[in-house]
Amino acid sequence: MDWMEWGGGSAPTAKDIAAYYRSRIAAGELEPLAPLPPGRKLAKHLKVALATVQSAYDVLKSEGLADSRPGSGTYVAEATEAGSAQDRAQGFRELQGQLSAVTSQLAELSERVAKLEGDRTDSA
Fold first, then answer.
1. Is 6 domain-assigned?
2. Which residues are CB-contacts of 95 (< 8 A; sequence separation ≥ 6)?
């Protein structure tokens, strides 16, 4: 069982928990059908509310990376025609990288526009 360790100053958020398991799946460290820790036990381990873990697992399920079985738990999703959970998680990581690059470029453009507007105001 893959127990998330958290060294952050504050308790992890659902986003942090989902990102941790997404990266483990993308790296192939969690195989298809591998069980994720039971929600209550993970919440206790991380000192967060059960709803936080459930929300993280819901994100993974909505991304097609995990499936839950009532009374049995949450597992890494099986491979489908759309590919394996590992392939989908790697795709999400690539998209996150591209989004970071675009965000950085947008910030740079915003700074340049602000500078040009300032120069235009100064010369008027």
1. no
2. none
pTM for the model stands at 0.68
Domain assignment present for residue 52? The answer is yes
Select from 47, 62, 41 the least CA-distant residue to 13.
47
pLDDT (tens place) for every residue of the chain, 124 residues total = 778 888 877 899 999 999 999 989 888 899 999 999 999 999 999 999 999 999 999 999 998 889 998 889 999 988 766 666 777 777 777 777 788 888 889 989 998 898 888 887 777 6
Instruction: Give yes or no for a contact between 63 and 22, defined as CB atoms under 8 angstroms apart.
Output: yes
Tokens standing for 91?
């795709």
* 55/13 Cα distance (integer angstroms): 9
Among candidates 57, 77, 54, which has minimal Cα distance to 65? Answer: 77
**Which secondary-structure segment (H or E) carries 109?**
helix 85-123
Query: What span, in angstroms and rounded, lies between the C-alpha atoms of 84 and 56?
Result: 19
Residue 124, number of CB atoms within 10 A of its CB: 5
* Owning domain of residue 25: 14-123
